[in-house]
Specification:
Blueprint: E1 5-8, H1 23-34, E2 38-42, H2 47-57, E3 62-65, E4 70-73, E5 76-79, H3 84-97, E6 101-104, E7 109-112, H4 117-126, E8 135-138, H5 143-147, E9 154-158, H6 162-175, E10 178-181, E11 187-192, H7 197-207, E12 215-219, H8 225-230, E13 233-236, H9 242-247, E14 250-251, H10 259-269
Parallel strand pairs: 1-2, 1-12, 2-3, 7-8, 12-13, 13-14
Antiparallel strand pairs: 3-4, 4-5, 6-7, 6-9, 9-11, 10-11
């Protein structure tokens, strides 16, 4: 069989609702790699966290982090970083609307205000387990000094206030400087204009000299929309958002029912 290149979201796709990756999922990924296929984790998590997850499964796994903002290429990290001109307006909006903002570097999270507990728990997952001390608070006074020392790949606004979300989204869209997505109803994920999971997939496919007809992608959130649109075979999980399901051509079972493993195994066995 001519090999496929498979891209998968991490949280809610490879992980179950408890945040764990099952032994069946790990075994499936190893089997896919043993068959000669290529496998990439493609996640909104910062790259260091994603790399640790990948290494815990199989060192052959490729990694795309920060919603396409960082790609592990051989032994190098290729980063499409945000500039001061794109970061500072986000910080200004955070303080203006009193909405927490998280900025993600390679192994560091910088935050404004006080993110709610549901998100600080999630942020702990997004950091490297060996670098959890790399979480810095940003004030309206110290942010030039802190940002001068940290390269930023992506950002997330956190609020359940839909009216505030609408205001922030509209402001960001008007600037035409950002790519906007969401992995949950309570966040707005922001990357540089030419950055997304979908664009990252195109870069990797070109770099590795694959044909787009051999691409498969799995996801569950709205930040996976571009990824599933780009891939030749886009699969939405059973627990995916309705928006993602509307653009997917194929559907797996819920992540708690081994949806990823079952679908991918049947797909490859049918070829």
């Amino acid at each position: 069989m001519k090999p496929y290149i498979i891209f998968s979201d991490l949280d809610g796709t490879l992980t179950n609702t408890s945040g764990d990756i099952s032994e069946q999922t790990k075994s499936t990924i190893k089997s896919v790699l043993d068959q000669g296929h290529t496998f990439y984790i493609c996640t909104g998590r910062m790259i260091q966290s994603a790399l640790e997850v990948a290494q815990s499964i199989d060192s052959r796994i490729g990694v795309i982090g920060s919603n396409g903002g960082v790609i592990k290429q051989d032994n190098n990290l290729v980063m499409n970083e945000m500039t001061e001109d794109t970061i500072y307006p986000l910080i200004d909006m955070s303080f203006k609307y009193n909405v927490p903002l998280l900025l993600f570097g390679l192994d560091t999270i910088i935050y404004t205000l006080n993110p709610p507990k549901f998100f600080t728990d999630d942020a702990a997952k997004r950091t490297s387990s060996s670098n959890r001390s790399h979480v810095l608070e940003l004030s309206s006074v110290n942010y030039p000094e802190i940002l001068d020392k940290t390269r930023i790949a992506n950002a997330i606004f956190i609020t359940e206030d839909l009216d505030l979300q609408a205001i922030i989204r509209e402001t960001l869209i008007k600037t035409d400087h950002y790519q906007i997505s969401s992995s949950n109803f309570n966040n707005i994920e922001v990357t540089p204009k030419e950055t997304s999971k979908g664009l990252a997939i195109k870069k990797v496919v070109k770099l590795l000299d694959f044909d787009m007809s051999r691409t498969v992608a799995f996801g569950d959130g709205n930040n996976d929309i571009e990824m599933l649109k780009v891939a030749h075979h886009g699969v939405a999980m059973g627990n995916a958002t309705e928006e993602l399901k509307s653009v997917a051509g194929y559907f797996a079972d819920h992540t708690d029912n081994q949806g990823f493993s079952t679908y991918l195994t049947k797909f490859l066995n049918s070829k």
